[in-house]
Amino acid sequence: MTHARTPRRQLTTAVMVALALTAGPLMAVPAVAAPRAMTAAAQATQQDVVPFPVDAWVVGSGPTGFLSAQRGTQLTYRWTRYADGVSTVLPGPGYTTARRTDIVTSGRENGVFRLYDMGSGGDLLEIDVTPLGDSYTFAGYAGSRLLMKKPNATGGTELHVVGKPAGSLVDDTVTGLPTDAEIISMNVDSPADAVVRYWGTVGGVKRSFAAVVDLTAHAVIEEYETPDVPLGTALSATHIAWLEQPADSTARVTVTRRDTGESVRHDLGVQDDVSIQLVGDWLTYRRPAPYLTAPPDALRALYARSLTTGETVKLLEHTTSATPGADGTQLARGGTLDQGEGLYRVSPGADGARPVVTLVASTGQPTALELLGHGIPETIDFDRETAPVQLNWTLSRRGTSVRVELVHTATKKTWKPDVSHFAGGIVGFQWDGVYAKYWNRVGNQYSDAVPAPNGDYTWRLTAEPEDGIGPAVEKTGTFKVVRKTVPHDFNDNGTPDLLIREPSGHLSLYNTSTPLGARPVNPAEPLGTGWDIYDALLSPGNVAGAAHSDIVARDTNGVLWLHQGTGRALAPRVRVGGGWQIYNKITGGSDLNGDGRADLVATDKAGDLWLYKGTGNASAPFAPRVKTGHGWGLYNKIVATGDIGGGAAGDLVARDTAGVLWLYLGTGNGTFAKRTPIGGGWNTYSDIVGFGDADRDGRPDLLGVTAAHGTPYFYKGTGEWRAPFAPRSAAYSYAYLGGTAF
């Protein structure tokens, strides 16, 4: 159809989509079929979703299918049919399509263009342009024809439509361009229409124009003067639009009715370049992605503006590529929150209504941020784990801000670890079972780090998309931490604890950690007040039959009380019995008779040693006493240490008045082998505490607290009775423990 040529009118400029052309033969190779079955009656126009390759962009689209290019070691080009999703992999690189058609081409080789109709499956069309001479240069594809430029004798440029309709080369010159036209660029909208941007001289003045060319009639049918060479154009049956050269980085588009010449200038309110297209009575625009497979970016959403009302709507949350489609549609690779990532068709709405957006090919990936899975084990056994446990979550895409918190169900203790990002949308961290407030860069260690307690946990993941596309994701889950029960552990975190009674009567718990002394002493956990009513305190281990360590205390009236441990606190006290004021030293924590239960020993004022076997019964935790030795009056401190000598049962250490520490190896029947000296100088300590395996090497250790400054020192157990302890080391950095340690 030939249109009446209209007067020149001023327009703005737009960005032109450039399609790469690479020479090479075109051969069809069958590829993977669609995942869903299609009926024999399926038509090319149906809207069933077919596959779209991941990490690919749309190159072109026709009535029956689309061409995509997929990133990899080399680009892979595929033609995919809408009807059944069957793809054809095209050999070699560098393919494009003739706009709004099923024609695919690999460009020119030795002067020959090869065109293949993927819709009809017809024979390969070869157009040899070498007979035209070297002065012809390629300008674009128009269906099965070529647009070529040729300089004329007056210094201008001619436009030619070259084809091979009946097996013979046909060269038609486009009429209506001025002889001095300097063609800058060309936007082929369809096999029938193109917009030519050129410079021409009017009245001796060089001016910029956009000309609509009817490619069937080989003639310019409309011509519009523009203030400058447009950056790109868009064409529909009713309008022409172009993007201005921006003076202030703001995108502005002028849209003109082709029948009346009425123009409207649209300020799109975005910065930098945009790509535009006309879809019915709407103008679509988007910011081109810097890379065709760039990550989602809300700045690159696809918008549409009504040419009649000025209403602006968002069609896609983001786009990476777009191309004109058949019947005045647009095809865009992008995503929506509802239907995810893939290829969408934008079609004119009925009677000027909003464009209709339809998913025609899907990658199977979500656009909204999603948690795809996690690698959190149901149970973490920190006795079996020899290295930190990797806790991972897999998100649907990269570019996220992630927060994780772990909450211990029973105590509500919370930790918010630093999270690392890995390839494939994986986020996570390595956990060694320790809570820490923050990383101390100066000390190269965690500050306020304590072993996490055993029990049930809830994890909470909060992930926010940094690109602003879609809502944040918040998910929760559960897991359990387990460790074997260890002596002297009062908060159920798998490590023994040091208990301190302050002069005010407050009882506090200090965590030990692995290795002991690697971190500053942590803030104490309060265990209660009023403990100054007792004149003797000891932790003999689990004597009441439960899983956790207990406390035995004697008041000033000689009554012995049991405070049973619960793993998180201490239960109300239970009276064990009276008459304990006859003893001047009491200790417990070693299994002295090999029955698997901790026992208690005490020395009276005569120096006799008495054994109270543990029963495991909370109402009567100790059996009647049995005399097991004498002469213990020469010691001012006795400490049950557990099995430090590698023998048959638990052991004792005793300090004499000269400060020498002696080892008594248990024989397994409540008695002890002949004493052996450990070393002198132990009178510097006001308290000596056998608090179990603090460094988790399988051997009990010892702690001494100096009388002068309350400084704790750690003695690592060796398991060798001849030298049961290694030289002392600082238990905590710069710590002062004021009070009675046990």
Structure summarized in a few sentences:
Helix content is 0%, strand content 45%.
Give a written overview of the molecule:
This protein has 742 residues and is an all-beta fold. The protein is 0% helix and 45% strand. The chain has a 5-stranded antiparallel sheet, with no helix packed on it. Strands 2-30-29-28-27 form a 5-stranded mixed sheet, with no helix packed on it. The chain is rod-shaped and about 130 Å long. 43% of the residues are buried. Mean pLDDT is 85; it is low at 1-47 and 438-446.
| Secondary structure tally: strands | 63
- Percent range for β-strand residues: over 45%
Find the structural class using helix and strand composition: mainly beta
List unreliable stretches of 5+ residues: 1-47, 438-446
Q: Tell me, rounded to a whole number, the average pLDDT.
A: 85
Largest sheet: 5 strands, antiparallel
Distance between the termini: 102 Å
How many helical stretches? Answer: 0
Helix content: under 10%
Question: Measured on Cα atoms, how large is the radius of gyration?
Answer: 42 Å
From the spread of the alpha carbons, the general shape counts as: rod-shaped
